[in-house]
């Protein structure tokens, strides 16, 4: 059961990351006016760096049960909980608790902790 919860956290983490990337491109940057253009590109790349990092975290959560190491499982879960937890808190603060993003991120954290 622990392994299944951890793998569900991984799938949810990847889904949240993909939604983050798509919404950034279709909603945020489609409307944003950022000059100079090189700065716009930089900000877009930094936004997507978060997307790639969250996908990597989801992959690690998916792989953790197959590693056969309690130490690896511990550090993967601890690291991902810190990353997604910080993102959830930042998103909740920014949206004043009204957004969906922080709830999705907190769900990944809850699943990861439950699967630990």
TrEMBL record:
**Keyword terms, alphabetized:** Membrane, Transmembrane, Transmembrane helix
Q: Where are the transmembrane segments?
A: 48-68, 75-94
User: What name does UniProt use for this protein?
Assistant: Membrane protein
Originating organism: Bradyrhizobium nanningense
